[in-house]
Amino acid sequence: MVILGSTGSIGTNALKIAKDNDIKIEMLAAGSNVDLLNKQIKQFNPKIVALRDLSQKDKLAIDKNQKVYFGEDGILEAINETKSDIVINAIVGFSGLKPSLEVIKKDKILALANKESLVVGGEFIDTTNIIPLDSEHFALQELIKDKQNIKKMIITASGGALRDVDINTISTQTPQNALNHPNWNMGKKITIDSATMVNKLFEILEAKYLFHTDNIDALIERNSIIHALIQTNDNAIFAHLGYSDMKLPISYAMLGKRAKNIESIKEIDLSNFTFNLTKIDTNRYPLWNLKDTLLKNPKLGIILNAVNEILVYKFLANKIRFGDINTNIYKAIEKFEGQIKYIKNIEDVFYINKEVIDFYSFN
Ligand code: NDP
Ligand code: MG
After folding, report:
1. Which of 41, 198, 350, 361 has fewest C-beta within 10 Å?
2. Is 283 exposed, middle or buried (0-12, 13-18, 19+ CB in 10 A)?
3. Helix 9-20 vs helix 247-255: angle between axes, to the nearest 10 degrees?
4. Please, what is the Cα angle at 284 between 282 and 289, to 5 degrees?
5. Distance from the alpha carbon of residue 217 to the mean position of ligand 2, in angstroms
């Protein structure tokens, strides 16, 4: 098993599953958190290690039997070196795309948390060997097994950290408030993406590419217990329920079957919950208005992802306000949408991504 992004929220959960199930780890890759990576190396003894951040090179504690690679290309070379059939890609952001492409090129199974890979590259990626780790898509995959005549797919959203704040104060909310997610404990970027609803836009595109459908919508389910629903042509509806714990989809991908027991996931007493599925309010989440446009013009996902990535980190660094994320995403789409017709292959994706990033890094 290979774990890319091993020091993150998904990565550390995957390593817990590996430990509990004696799964051998062949390779670990991380960005810059050398201290945690060193602990993981000691515990799991991988043959191959990759570290993105060259400035941390000297701190890496490996022994002479371990091969080590550095930098962006180093991670790709390291993937190439592995013999494992399954690679978990839990890198955050656009940086996950090249590793995803490398895994697919090597005919390995890609257990994909890095949804950004599909958001930007979905038009040019063969999804046959992808197992979704995103909870909603994992749920959809389970729901569609053995079903025919599927009319519609629905994924759920929690509403994010700002779902209950006074709507007039949203645009000036602090990073601290926007990171305070009610149901999930995740990395910072996806937590902000949840608060803006960008995460759900990403997931709509992710579902489109994984399940080859445009009949996909999202509703708010505040408990994050119902993860997805499907409606069949006879108007029956099937739902997938489970606690908000990523070890459920991760363990399924890693074990290739349902786990006998996942320690942190307890039995759900349904009588403790009230289930209510509501429409996503576009006054509170103005970006949700982009959903149909994105389904019609999915390559706009490249622009959305690029500008969003810049804006989220600027917001986290207190350089812009929360509300600026919304307004600047709309501006970026308006500015760059004319260019998407020139995107004909995956190389063009890298080109446009860089154009958007260069523009917004200086503006
Ligand atoms: P985190 O921020 O917690 O972790 C990101 C990981 O990626 C870290 O290990 C980080 O390393 C590593 N990383 C970042 N940049 C690079 C790079 N350029 N090269 C190599 N490694 C890099 O994020 P999450 O675990 O929350 O999310 C990971 C992905 O999974 C995202 O795409 C997210 O949308 C998706 N996802 C997450 C869910 C969750 O519950 N967390 C749920 C569904 C999807 P380091 O810390 O060492 O710098
Ligand atoms: Mg999700």
Report:
1. 361
2. exposed
3. 50
4. 25
5. 13
Q: Which residue has its alpha carbon closest to ligand 1 atom 30?
A: 113
pLDDT, tens digit (0-9, with 9 covering 90-100), for 109-132? 999 999 999 999 999 999 999 999
Give the integer Cα–Cα distance in Å for 145 and 148: 9
Confidence (pLDDT) at 125: 98
- Report the run of H or E that residue 132 belongs to, with start and end: strand 130-132
Contact call for residues 304 and 188 (beta carbons, < 8 A):
no
- Average pLDDT score over residue span 41-53: 98
| C-alpha–C-alpha distance, residues 292 and 60, integer Å | 46
Average pLDDT for residues 141-152, to the nearest whole number? 96
Q: What percent of the chain has pLDDT over 70?
A: 99
Q: Return the residue whose CA atom lies nearest to atom 16 of ligand 1.
A: 31
Q: Taking the chain, what is the end-to-end CA distance rounded to the nearest angstrom?
A: 42
Nearest alpha carbon to residue 14 among 102, 103, 114: 114
Tokens encoding 88:
């978990």
For the residues 182-203, what does the mean pLDDT come to? 96
Q: Which atom of ligand 1 is nearest to the CA of 93?
A: 32
pTM: 0.98
125/150 Cα distance (integer angstroms): 24
Find the mean pLDDT for residues 293-315. 98
**Percent of the chain scoring above 90 in pLDDT:** 96
What is the CATH topology of the domain spanning 2-133? Rossmann fold (3.40.50)
H runs (alpha helix) in the chain: 9-20, 34-44, 71-81, 97-105, 116-121, 135-144, 175-178, 188-196, 198-211, 247-255, 291-296, 300-316, 322-336, 346-362
DSSP states of 195-206 as a string?
HHTHHHHHHHHH
Q: How far is 163 from 196, CA to CA, in rounded Å? A: 10
| Residue 42 confidence (pLDDT) above 70 | yes
Given the CA of residue 34, which atom of ligand 1 is nearest to it? 47
Where does CATH 3.40.50.720 sit in the chain? 2-133
